[in-house]
Amino acid sequence: MIGVHYEDDHIATGFGNHLARPILREEWREDLSFEEDFKLLEKCMRNLLYRDRSAVNKLQIAKTTEEGLTISQPYSLKTFWNSAAFQNPTVGTVGSW
Fold first, then answer.
1. 17, 32, 42, 73: least CB-packed within 10 angstroms?
2. Which of 33, 51, 45 is nearest to 78 (CA)?
3. Residue 44 burial (CB count, 10 A)
C-alpha cells in the first residue's frame, strides 16, 4: 500500500492541525447544520489568519452532497486587527524575540 489511509470527522494539515483542530474537537458535532458548519469553518480560518497575518483572507467554500458539488464565490473573511494585542504584540515580553 502506498500513501496514508485516514478517517475522521474532520481533518486539518499544517498549522491547521495545531490551531484549527482543537476548535473542531471542541465545537464540531455531527448534527451541525450547513450554516453552523460554515461559521465554524470561518472561525477556524480566522484563527489561522490571525496567526499568519501575511496570508490572504479570501476563501471559497465547497459543499459536496449526493446531488453534486457547489463552490461559493471567493469572499473576504471579516477580521478585526485593532485589538491591543495586535497593535503592540511584544509589550510585556522578556527576551530577544
1. 73
2. 45
3. 21
**34: buried, middle or exposed (CB in 10 Å: 19+, 13-18, 0-12)?**
exposed
Burial of 20 (0-12, 13-18, 19+ CB in 10 A): buried
Distance CA 22, CA 24 (A): 5
Q: Where are the alpha helices (DSSP H) in 1-97?
A: 15-19, 21-27, 34-51, 84-87
* CA 96 to chain CA centroid, nearest Å: 30
CA distance linking residue 28 with residue 40, whole number of Å: 8
pLDDT digits (tens, 9 = 90+) for 19-28: 999 999 999 9
* Cell output for 55: 496570508
pTM of the model: 0.77
Which residues does 73 contact at the CB level (< 8 Å), separation at least 6?
60
